[in-house]
Amino acid sequence: MQEMDIPSHIIRWSASFLKGLQAKVRVNSKSSPLVLFHRGVPQGTVLGPLMFIIAMNALSKRLSQVPLLFHVFFADDLTP
Questions:
Q1: Does residue 77 lie within any of the structural domains?
Q2: Which residues constitute the domain of residue 45?
Q3: pLDDT at 10
Q4: Which terminus of the chain is more solvent-facing, meaning fewer CB atoms within 10 Å of its CB: N or C?
């Protein structure tokens, strides 16, 4: 995000938003213990597609530096 000149307050907010995410699975009336996530973006969040684009842009820049390597990214998400 820094390489994209995104303001530092937005970078800090994004990091704070993603820190300490946890979830549990519920089947019928039983729940699993809480699981702490160290990576990823919560499913269904409005920021998910944007954060994916930011991550893929950084990866694309690095791959572009590899000689004789051609790459294309494709994402198909029809979820409303």
A1: no
A2: 8-63
A3: 93
A4: C
Amino acid at 72: V
Identify the pLDDT of residue 78.
Answer: 66
In a domain, 47, yes or no: yes
Kindly compute the dihedral angle of the four CA atoms of residues 54, 59, 61, 62, in this order, to the nearest 10 degrees: 150
DSSP letters along 7-67, please?
A: -HHHHHHHHHHHTT-EE--EETTEEPPPEE-SSS--TT-THHHHHHHHHHHHHHHHHTTST
List pLDDT tens digits, range 6-60.
Answer: 999 999 999 998 898 899 999 999 999 999 988 888 888 888 888 888 989 999 9
Q: How confident is the model at residue 71 (pLDDT cuts 50, 70, 90)?
A: very high
- When divided into structural domains, the chain yields a total of 1
Q: Which amino acid is at 7?
A: P
